[in-house]
Amino acid sequence: MTEDKQNSILIIGGGLIGLSIAYEFARNDFKVLVLSKNRSQSAGFVAAGMLATHAEGLKGELLKFGQQSQRLIPEWIKNIEQDSGIDCGLKQCGIVVPFKNMMSLRDFPTYQYGKYLNQRELKNEINGINSIWKHGLIFEQDGQIDNRRRLMRALERACSLHGVKFEEGS
Which pTM was predicted? Predict the structure, then answer.
């Protein structure tokens, strides 16, 4: 096998995951080709951009994996922003989860990672929330990213600048 083939990667799918993988390989001197049907219709352009390991109530190994991922995200985003020149809109702003009663709050799998909010504090966090919501948790370690307009565009640009080739309509 020639050296070129050993350092070549083919990625099928030009969505958020495909571009993320392409970016990492290209940054490490691999030749990368991304095949995709239509990148502009990928899930990365329509997903909500929540970074919600704790607010989603993950458990067990999935929770550990999510926590590890969230610790790595800021540095990863910083690299993409530096390479692309595009601010990705990462906000480590916290995510609020409301509850109707204290039992539901205490039964939430990641309850211990959140900060308790009484009804007044909950209303301050979520303007106009219905009064049926009595309690809340704010997971300050969770956040969001603007994957629709910023992250996907930044990844596309960073990939291109690192020599990634794209083949649409495949």
Answer: 0.82
